[in-house]
Design goal:
The structure holds two protein chains of two kinds. Chain A is mainly alpha-helical. Helices cover 66% and strands 5% of the residues of chain A. Chain A folds into two domains: 1-49, no CATH class; 71-185. Chain A has a two-stranded antiparallel sheet. In chain A, helix 1 runs antiparallel to helix 3 and helix 3 (42-70) crosses helix 6 (108-132). Helices cover 28% and strands 21% of the residues of chain B. Classes of the chains: A mainly alpha, B alpha+beta.
C-alpha cells in the first residue's frame, strides 16, 4: 500500500516541512524517487492501491474481530497506568534510566503503540475513502476536514506507519532471539526462576 | 545420578524447543514464499489496457460497488463565485491543436439499436446550445494527479440538452432514470474534432444535475486553452473525463474508447 501510495503521491508531491520559502525536508527528494523507481507510474500506483485497499481493510477487520473475541484486547488496550509506564519505557530505552519498567505481555508503550496503530488504520481507511469518493461519500470528506485536508492526513498517517515500522524493527532486534521466535512461533521459552 | 537426570531432561527439552522452532520457521518461510510467488504471479499476468488482468477485474468490481452508492442527489460541494480561482490550471493539450472555432458545430449521433444510419447524425451550433437554459457550477475541480482547484463554469446541463434534443434513448424520447433498461444508452462517448482525445462516460454520471456542456469560465467565454468553444464539466469525475473542445457526441451500449483508460487508468474515474 505504501509503495503504490508513493507512486500516486509523486504526481502531486507538494508536501514539505518548513516555513514560507524555507524547506527543511521536501517530500520527497529526487534522489529518493530515483532510488525507488517512483516517477511516471500514477496509473500503476492507483490500480494497485485500489485493489490492495481491500486486503488492507479485510486484514484489519479480521484482526480486530480476533482481538475482540479472543479476549486478547485485555492485554492490548492501555489502562490508566499505561501512559506513565510508557514514559518509563521511553526513558529506559533511551538509556536515560537504568531500572526496567513494568512489563506484562506488553508494556505500557507497546499497548499504546499497538492500539494506536489500529486507530491509525481506521484513520487511513476513512481519509482514503474521503479522497477516493469525495462526492458519493462526502460525509467522510467533511468528517476529515475537506478533500485537501484528507489527503494531508492520509499522507501523515503513512509517514506514521513508516516511523512505527522503524521503531518496531529496532526494538525487535534489541529484544533478541527468544522474542523474535515468539513473534513467529507464538510461544517463548521462559527461564525457570528456581534455576 | 540426580544431576545426570536433570541434564537428560534439559537435553530433551532443548530438542523439543529446536523441533518446534524449526517447524514454526518453516511455516513462516513458506508463508513468505507464498506471498512472493503470489506477487510474481500477479505482476506477470498478461496486460489488459496497460494493467495486469486481475487488477483490471478488481477495478471493474470497484466500479460496480461504487456506482452502486452513486446518486444524483449526491452533489459535489458548491462554492461561492468569489472563491473561484482566476488562474485556472491547464493540464492537458491532447486534441488541442490550433483550431478555428468559427467552423465549429457539435456533431451528435443518436443512440441506435443497430448500425447508425445517416438520419441518426445531426449538428448543433453554439448559438443553439446557448439558447438552452443556462446554468453555472462552482466546485472543487479534482485532477487524477491529486491537485484540486475551486473553479467556476457556465453552460447548459447535459440532462437539459439531452431532453431537448431527445438523445441517448432508442425511441428518441427524453432520457430519464426511470427508463426501461436497454432503452437508454449505457454510455456517452465524446471525441475532440481531431479525434486525438476521447472519453467514455456512464450515462448516470452524464445525467447528473451538475454535469454541463460548458461554454463559459469565470463568467466569460471559454478560453481556447480550456477547450473553446464547448467542453464537458462533470464534477462527479476526475479531470481526465472533462474533455475539452467536444467535436462529436455519441451514445452506446458498450463502453466507448477512452484515452486514459488505454494508458492503464480506471475507466470509471468517478468521485
Amino acid at each position: 500500500m505504501i509503495w503504490s501510495g508513493l507512486l500516486i503521491y509523486w504526481a502531486n508531491d507538494v508536501y514539505r516541512i518548513g516555513w514560507s520559502d524555507h524547506t527543511i525536508l521536501k517530500f520527497f527528494p529526487d534522489s529518493f524517487y530515483k532510488a525507488f523507481h517512483v516517477p511516471f507510474k500514477l496509473a500503476k500506483g492507483m490500480s494497485f492501491h485500489f485493489v490492495f485497499m481491500w486486503l488492507f481493510a479485510l486484514n484489519g477487520f479480521l484482526y480486530v474481530l480476533y482481538i475482540m473475541f479472543s479476549g486478547k484486547w485485555r492485554e492490548l488496550i492501555p489502562g490508566k497506568k499505561s501512559f506513565g509506564d510508557a514514559w518509563q519505557v521511553l526513558l529506559h530505552d533511551l538509556f536515560l534510566k537504568k531500572e526496567k519498567p513494568a512489563q506484562g505481555k506488553f508494556n505500557g508503550a507497546q499497548k499504546i503503540a499497538y492500539t494506536g496503530i489500529i486507530i491509525m488504520g481506521i484513520g487511513s481507511l476513512v481519509t482514503g475513502l474521503a479522497i477516493y469518493k469525495p462526492v458519493q461519500l462526502s460525509w467522510m470528506m467533511y468528517l476529515t476536514g475537506g478533500y485537501e485536508a484528507a489527503r494531508i492526513e492520509h499522507f501523515i498517517l503513512t509517514i506514521g506507519y513508516v516511523l512505527f515500522f522503524i521503531v518496531h524493527i529496532v526494538q525487535v532486534i534489541r529484544s533478541g532471539w527468544n522474542n523474535f521466535r515468539a513473534i513467529v512461533a507464538g510461544w517463548e521459552v521462559v527461564e525457570d526462576a528456581g534455576d | 545420578m540426580m544431576v545426570q537426570e536433570e541434564n537428560k531432561q534439559e537435553e530433551k527439552f532443548r530438542k523439543v524447543v529446536r523441533r518446534k522452532t524449526v517447524r514454526a520457521f518453516s511455516w513462516f518461510f513458506l508463508f513468505l514464499l507464498f506471498l512472493f510467488a503470489g506477487w510474481k504471479w500477479l505482476v506477470n499476468q498478461p496486460n489488459a489496457d496497460g494493467l495486469p488482468k486481475p487488477l483490471r477485474k478488481i477495478l471493474h468490481v470497484n466500479e460496480k460497488i461504487f456506482s452502486g452508492v452513486y446518486s444524483d442527489s449526491h452533489l459535489s460541494k458548491e462554492y461561492p463565485k468569489s472563491s473561484a480561482v482566476s488562474d485556472v490550471r491547464v493540464n492537458g493539450d491532447v486534441g488541442m491543436k490550433a483550431y478555428d472555432t468559427s467552423e465549429w458545430t457539435l456533431q451528435v449521433v443518436r443512440f441506435s439499436p443497430f448500425t447508425p444510419v445517416p438520419g441518426d447524425t445531426f449538428y448543433v451550433t453554439l448559438d443553439e446550445i446557448k439558447k438552452l437554459p443556462r446554468t453555472e457550477v462552482v466546485f472543487n475541480f479534482k485532477c487524477i494527479e491529486g491537485w484540486s482547484q475551486v473553479t467556476w463554469w457556465g453552460g447548459v446541463k447535459f440532462s437539459d440538452f439531452a431532453a431537448h434534443y431527445r438523445v441517448g434513448t432508442r425511441d428518441q424520447s427524453a432520457p430519464d432514470k426511470e427508463y426501461a433498461p436497454g432503452m437508454i444508452a449505457k454510455y456517452a462517448g465524446l471525441v475532440t474534432p481531431d479525434g486525438e482525445y476521447y472519453v467514455g462516460i456512464d450515462m448516470a454520471s452524464m445525467l447528473h444535475p451538475q454535469t454541463i456542456l460548458c461554454y463559459e469560465m469565470n463568467g466569460k467565454p471559454l478560453p481556447m486553452n480550456q477547450g473553446a468553444p464547448l467542453r464537458l464539466i462533470i464534477p462527479v469525475k476526475y479531470g481526465v473525463k472533462h474533455i475539452k473542445r467536444i467535436g462529436t457526441l455519441f451514445f452506446s451500449a458498450a463502453p466507448p474508447p477512452d484515452y486514459w483508460f488505454e494508458q492503464g487508468y480506471d475507466y470509471y474515474a468517478g468521485l
